C-alpha cells in the first residue's frame, strides 16, 4: 500500500523514469548478450557552411547527426505506461561512440547535454550537433573558378565492428534548414556517402562538393590583373626613352598585385594556380623587354664603334631566318 501511494504521487514520466532507470547502467552496451552487435543508423544534416579556409585547408561547418539504435533495457508496454515517448538527457543512457576522424581541433565533442527520445519498443533517437572543423584537401589549379571536394568522416574509436556497427539508410545529407554561404555554393543536391561495415572500426564519410562564387574575384582579382597586364604589354609601343621609366613603375605595381593574389591562396606546391602562372609569365616577358631595351639603347649610344661581326652573324644570319625576314648587306 505504501508503494502504491508513492507511485500515485509521481507523474507519468517520473514513474516511467523510475521504472526504466532503477537498475540501469549507461556504461553497458544496450544488448542482453555480449556477442550481439549494436547496430547504429547514422545520418547527417547540414545547416551551414561557415568557412572553407583555403590557406589552412580547413572546412568549418554547422550541422547535427541523427543516430538511431535500439536499447532492449528501455522498452515498456502499455501496462507500464501509456506514454508514446520519453525524453531524457544523453548522459543518462548509453550513447554510441563516434569521433570526427579527420577533425582539426579535436575528434571528440561534448554532446551529453543533447536530449534523446525513447520509444516504447526501445528505439532511441539522438541528435547531437555543433560546429565541425575538418581537414579538406584543396586544389587551386583553376582558382578562382575552382571546385573543392571535402570529406567529413565519422566513426567509432574504441568499439570494434563486432561490438558496434555504424551504417546508414540514406543516400544524401539532409539540407532541410540549410543556409547558403556567400562564398561557396553547394553544387550537388545529393551528397555521396560511403560506409565501411567490414572495417575493424566502422566509420561513415560524407563527401561535400563546393563551387566558389567567383563574382567577387572577377571584380577584385581577374579584372585588375588583366588591366595591369595590358599596361605592361603596352610598353612595347612606347619610345625607348619612356619605356624604362614606365616599365619600372608598372612592374612595381604588378609585383604588389602578385603579393595580394598570393595572400589568398594556400602555401602549397602541390597545385599552382593558372592565374599565378599567367601573371608571372606576363611579368617575366615585360622584364625581358626592359632588359632588351637597355641593351639596345646601350648599343645605340656607341656610335663611334662598328657593329661586331658576331652580332651581324647572329642578327642577320640566324635571327633573320627565325623571324622570316630578308636583309640587304
UniProtKB/TrEMBL annotation:
Stretches assigned to the Neurotransmitter-gated ion-channel transmembrane domain: 221-327
Pfam families: Neur_chan_LBD (PF02931), Neur_chan_memb (PF02932)
GO MF terms, alphabetically ordered: acetylcholine-gated monoatomic cation-selective channel activity; transmembrane signaling receptor activity
GO BP annotation list: chemical synaptic transmission; inorganic cation transmembrane transport; monoatomic ion transmembrane transport; regulation of membrane potential
InterPro entries reported in the protein's UniProt record: Neur_chan_lig-bd, Neur_chan_lig-bd_sf, Neur_channel, Neuro-gated_channel_TM_sf, Neuro_actylchol_rec, Neurotrans-gated_channel_TM, Neurotransmitter_ion_chnl_CS
SUPFAM superfamilies attached to this UniProt entry: Neurotransmitter-gated ion-channel transmembrane pore, Nicotinic receptor ligand binding domain-like
Subcellular location as annotated: Membrane
Cellular component terms per the entry's GO annotation: acetylcholine-gated channel complex; neuron projection; plasma membrane; postsynapse; synapse
Record-annotated membrane-spanning stretches: 216-237, 244-262, 274-300
Domain Neurotransmitter-gated ion-channel ligand-binding: start-end pairs: 14-213
Keywords: Ion channel, Ion transport, Membrane, Transmembrane, Transmembrane helix, Transport
Nucleus listed as a keyword: no
Membrane topology: Multi-pass membrane protein
Family: Belongs to the ligand-gated ion channel (TC 1.A.9) family.
Name of this chain's protein: Neurotransmitter-gated ion-channel ligand-binding domain-containing protein
Amino acid at each position: 500500500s505504501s508503494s502504491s501511494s508513492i507511485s500515485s504521487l509521481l507523474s507519468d514520466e517520473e514513474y516511467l523514469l523510475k521504472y526504466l532507470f532503477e537498475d540501469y547502467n549507461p556504461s553497458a552496451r544496450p544488448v542482453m548478450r555480449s556477442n550481439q552487435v549494436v547496430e547504429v543508423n547514422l545520418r547527417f544534416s547540414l545547416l551551414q557552411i561557415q568557412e572553407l579556409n583555403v590557406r589552412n585547408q580547413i572546412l568549418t561547418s554547422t550541422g547535427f547527426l541523427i543516430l538511431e539504435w535500439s536499447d532492449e533495457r528501455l522498452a515498456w508496454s502499455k501496462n507500464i505506461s501509456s506514454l508514446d515517448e520519453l525524453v531524457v538527457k544523453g548522459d543518462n543512457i548509453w550513447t554510441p561512440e563516434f569521433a570526427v576522424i579527420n577533425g582539426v581541433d579535436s575528434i571528440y565533442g561534448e554532446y551529453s547535454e543533447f536530449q534523446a527520445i525513447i520509444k516504447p519498443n526501445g528505439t532511441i533517437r539522438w541528435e547531437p550537433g555543433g560546429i565541425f572543423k575538418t581537414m579538406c584537401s584543396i586544389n587551386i589549379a583553376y582558382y578562382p573558378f575552382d571546385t573543392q571536394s571535402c570529406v567529413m568522416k565519422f566513426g567509432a574509436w574504441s568499439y570494434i565492428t563486432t561490438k558496434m556497427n555504424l551504417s546508414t539508410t540514406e543516400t544524401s545529407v539532409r539540407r532541410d534548414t540549410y543556409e547558403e554561404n556567400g562564398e561557396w555554393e553547394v553544387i550537388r543536391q545529393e551528397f555521396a556517402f560511403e560506409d565501411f561495415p567490414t572495417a575493424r572500426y566502422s566509420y561513415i564519410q560524407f563527401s561535400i562538393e563546393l563551387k566558389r562564387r567567383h563574382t567577387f574575384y572577377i571584380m577584385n582579382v581577374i579584372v585588375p590583373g588583366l588591366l595591369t597586364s595590358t599596361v605592361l604589354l603596352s610598353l612595347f609601343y612606347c619610345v625607348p626613352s619612356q619605356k624604362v621609366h614606365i616599365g619600372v613603375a608598372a612592374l612595381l605595381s604588378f609585383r604588389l598585385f602578385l603579393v595580394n593574389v598570393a595572400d589568398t591562396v594556400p602555401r602549397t606546391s602541390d597545385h599552382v594556380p593558372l592565374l599565378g602562372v599567367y601573371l608571372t609569365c606576363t611579368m617575366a616577358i615585360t622584364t625581358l623587354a626592359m632588359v632588351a631595351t637597355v641593351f639596345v639603347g646601350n648599343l645605340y649610344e656607341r656610335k663611334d664603334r662598328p657593329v661586331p661581326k658576331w652580332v651581324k652573324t647572329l642578327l642577320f644570319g640566324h635571327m633573320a631566318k627565325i623571324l622570316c625576314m630578308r636583309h640587304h648587306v
